[in-house]
């Protein structure tokens, strides 16, 4: 049995899985390992300080990708994607510079997320690139569809990072996406095993995007203490910060996150300036580097409750593929071609 979807067909994947673009985590080692496993590895542009640094990261990633994968994806859009998360800022990163650097290095797949992907999509489409836009609502997905996105990544409330402000879980959000969207979509948030992948496919998705689960693999350049904390956690070990600031983010429930929530819930609330030092990116990066899980806030989805080991990416993808196929085959056995007793009874009407 082979899982064939719009995602695998378009990008030449063996398994319909995409690694989420995670700052400080979407590095060459992880992106290459995910790609070598048959899924789509993603380099996070903003992990790199400059467009030139991204160029070097792309080269490092390609050097780690097997010749077999390169041959399989020849004639498609390439072996890896580049993530660009567009955030409001007084001094925004050089998004266009990152985009052009990636294109000049031969990358033809982009994952965009955040605010107004239009300018990036326009540049990408001028160079025959494939764009997957991640969003947290059907209305935003439809806007990205109009801007030219080839595929949408629909982020449910279960996800790590920013789930939006609508608080709609994946079960309903995926079904709504299937009703409304004209282009294919993949499910994001709440998926960490083959059963979740099979469920996403049943809801109409063409595959799944996973961030938290790929964080907890051997190739992820994240301190072992962080991975152990994820294995030891259950689905209650995350929390939301920035709820009162209308910029909700799901993070691991550590001392810093609890303090941020306390400040937000005090009489009079909190302004971003009141928590800025606690939530700085430098502190979050320190968590991954030093293994001090209370050094800062760090993203984690409720799928930590489904993570029980730290496999290689190859082992994880292969197990998910096999489990998804098993669950899909099991569902097929529930369909009977016999006429049900209800159908057989004559109507009283």
From TrEMBL:
The keyword Flavoprotein applies. The keyword Isomerase does not apply. CDD domains: NPD_like (cd04730). InterPro entries: Aldolase_TIM, NMO. It holds the Pfam family NMO. GO terms for molecular function: dioxygenase activity; nitronate monooxygenase activity. It comes from the Eukaryota. Keywords: Dioxygenase, Flavoprotein, FMN, Oxidoreductase. This is Probable 2-Nitropropane dioxygenase.
């Amino acid at each position: 049995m082979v899982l064939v979807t719009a995602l695998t067909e378009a990008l030449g994947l063996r398994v319909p899985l995409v690694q989420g673009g995670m700052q400080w985590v979407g590095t060459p080692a992880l992106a290459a390992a995910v790609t070598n496993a048959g899924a789509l590895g993603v380099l996070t542009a903003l992990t790199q300080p400059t467009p030139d640094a991204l160029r070097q990261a792309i080269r490092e990633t390609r050097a780690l990708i097997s010749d077999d994968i390169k041959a399989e994806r020849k004639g498609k859009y390439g072996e890896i994607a580049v993530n660009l998360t567009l955030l409001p800022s007084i001094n925004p990163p050089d998004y266009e510079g990152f985009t052009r650097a990636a294109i000049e290095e031969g990358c033809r797949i982009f994952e965009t997320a955040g605010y107004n992907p239009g300018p990036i999509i326009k540049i990408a489409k001028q160079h025959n690139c494939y764009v997957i836009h991640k969003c947290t609502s059907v209305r935003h997905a439809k806007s990205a569809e109009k801007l030219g996105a080839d595929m949408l990544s629909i982020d449910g409330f279960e996800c790590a990072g920013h789930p939006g402000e609508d608080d709609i879980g994946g079960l309903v959000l995926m079904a709504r996406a299937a009703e409304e969207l004209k282009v294919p979509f993949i499910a994001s948030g709440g998926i960490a095993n083959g059963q979740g992948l099979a469920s996403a496919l049943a809801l109409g998705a063409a595959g799944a995007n996973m961030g938290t689960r790929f964080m907890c693999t051997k190739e992820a350049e994240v301190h072992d203490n962080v991975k152990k904390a994820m294995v030891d956690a259950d689905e209650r070990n995350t929390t939301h910060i920035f709820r009162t600031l209308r910029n909700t983010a799901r993070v691991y429930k550590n001392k810093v996150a609890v303090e941020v929530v306390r400040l937000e819930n005090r009489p009079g609330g909190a302004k971003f300036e009141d928590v800025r030092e606690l939530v700085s990116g430098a502190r979050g990066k320190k968590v991954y580097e030093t293994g001090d899980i209370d050094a800062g806030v760090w993203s984690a989805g409720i799928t930590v409750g489904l993570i029980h080991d730290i496999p290689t990416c190859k082992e994880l993808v292969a197990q998910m593929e096999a489990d998804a196929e098993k669950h899909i085959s099991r569902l097929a056995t529930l369909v009977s071609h016999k006429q049900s007793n209800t159908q057989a009874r004559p109507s009283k009407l």
